[in-house]
């Protein structure tokens, strides 16, 4: 079986036989067991989805403890359920050796009945935890509280999650980051992008008008909500079913309001690309741009490729959409794990 090598890298990718084995295992095992937790982080309701080791703090120093953690930082809305299949394939691709976690954005979840969206406490809290800067601090607080400093990280960002990862790497340069994979990265000029021009007025001036219909829809039975989601996404030929239950979270006014508020700040604050942080961490970064992505158009890919000719910056030629988790989570996970084989197998 021939092996393919990326022209800008000496990483060896999965052979077709290895891909078939992974997919057959997934089909035979069904969904691997995952753990879903709701916690307060920065006093805000947060959902954490985990495949593999559930508590790195307690396991640190034990022989069976993993020295590597995959941490997924989602796009917006930052609902971790969208990434379930994507995470499952990553976990299986490395023979369940490394835990794979995803942490939601603060307030981008529907907490259980016994939890409020914000914790009532006298402890110091972020002034604006639901805003963009607050979400960066929220992820840093999560790492500090739940991940030992000696654990090596593979950070995987999607959309605005890529911006958050670059901010984390800038603010905490001693973090043990092996690689950061930035998928469909919205790291510059969001409001000037084709989709940004369309969404900026809605997010910045008209978002309050959306709250009343969402509130009314929230009273519908769950099965009706699920049917509505499937109807809205009916054009997708291979809709990932885990995304249906994830989308139902958006029938919560609080969850949607927090997502739209964060989005409004993205339009205003995500302006210039952080070239200094990219330059400082160039060897740790992998960028993956979409060929037809209206949030980060090909022009942005061409410009960053020009400015960083030695960086690992790739352009999708598979027609994968910006919201890849809806129908291509498995494909992107298999492709991404190919890129990471060498760095992880050398540990």
From TrEMBL:
Keyword Endoplasmic reticulum annotated: yes
Documented EC number(s): 3.1.1.13
Catalytic activity line of the entry: a cholesterol ester + H2O = cholesterol + a fatty acid + H(+)
Keyword Zinc-finger part of the UniProt annotation: no
Any one GO molecular function term: sterol ester esterase activity
Gene Ontology biological process terms, A to Z: cholesterol homeostasis; intracellular triglyceride homeostasis; lipid droplet fusion; lipid storage
This protein's GO CC annotations: endoplasmic reticulum; lipid droplet
Keywords: Endoplasmic reticulum, Hydrolase, Lipid droplet
Domain of life of the native organism: Eukaryota
Location relative to the cell: Endoplasmic reticulum; Lipid droplet
InterPro entries per record: AB_hydrolase_fold, LDAH
Major enzyme class: hydrolase
Main location: endoplasmic reticulum
Family, per entry: Belongs to the AB hydrolase superfamily. LDAH family.
Protein known as: Lipid droplet-associated hydrolase
């Amino acid at each position: 079986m021939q092996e393919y090598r990326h022209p800008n890298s000496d990483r060896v990718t999965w052979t077709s036989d290895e891909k078939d084995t992974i997919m057959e295992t997934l089909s035979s095992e069904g969904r691997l067991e995952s753990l879903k937790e709701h916690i307060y982080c920065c006093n805000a309701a947060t959902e954490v989805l985990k495949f593999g080791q559930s508590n790195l703090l307690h396991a640190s120093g034990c022989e069976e403890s993993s020295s590597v953690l995959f941490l997924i930082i989602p796009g917006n809305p930052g609902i971790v359920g969208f990434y379930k299949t994507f995470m499952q394939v990553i976990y299986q691709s490395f023979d369940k050796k490394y835990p794979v976690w995803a942490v939601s954005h603060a307030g981008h979840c529907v907490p259980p009945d016994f939890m409020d969206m914000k914790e009532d406490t006298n402890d110091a809290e972020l002034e604006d935890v639901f805003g963009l800067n607050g979400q960066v601090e929220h992820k840093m607080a999560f790492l500090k509280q739940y991940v030992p400093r000696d654990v090596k990280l593979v950070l995987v960002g999607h959309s605005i999650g890529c911006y958050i990862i670059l901010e984390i790497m800038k603010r905490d340069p001693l973090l043990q980051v092996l690689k950061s994979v930035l998928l469909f990265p919205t790291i510059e000029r969001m409001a000037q992008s084709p989709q940004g021009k369309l969404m900026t007025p809605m997010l910045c001036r008209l978002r309050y008008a959306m709250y009343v219909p969402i509130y009314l829809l929230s009273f519908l039975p769950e099965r009706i909500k699920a049917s509505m989601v499937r109807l809205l996404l009916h054009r997708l030929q291979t809709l990932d079913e885990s995304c249906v239950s994830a989308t139902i979270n958006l029938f919560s006014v609080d969850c949607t309001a927090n997502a739209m508020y964060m989005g409004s700040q993205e339009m205003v604050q995500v302006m210039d690309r952080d070239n200094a942080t990219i330059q400082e961490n160039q060897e740790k970064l992998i960028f993956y741009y979409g060929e037809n992505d209206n949030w980060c158009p090909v022009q942005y890919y061409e410009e960053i490729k020009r400015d960083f000719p030695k960086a690992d910056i790739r352009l999708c030629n598979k027609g994968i959409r910006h919201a890849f988790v809806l129908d291509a989570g498995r494909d992107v996970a298999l492709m991404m794990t190919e890129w990471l084989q060498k760095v992880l197998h050398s540990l």
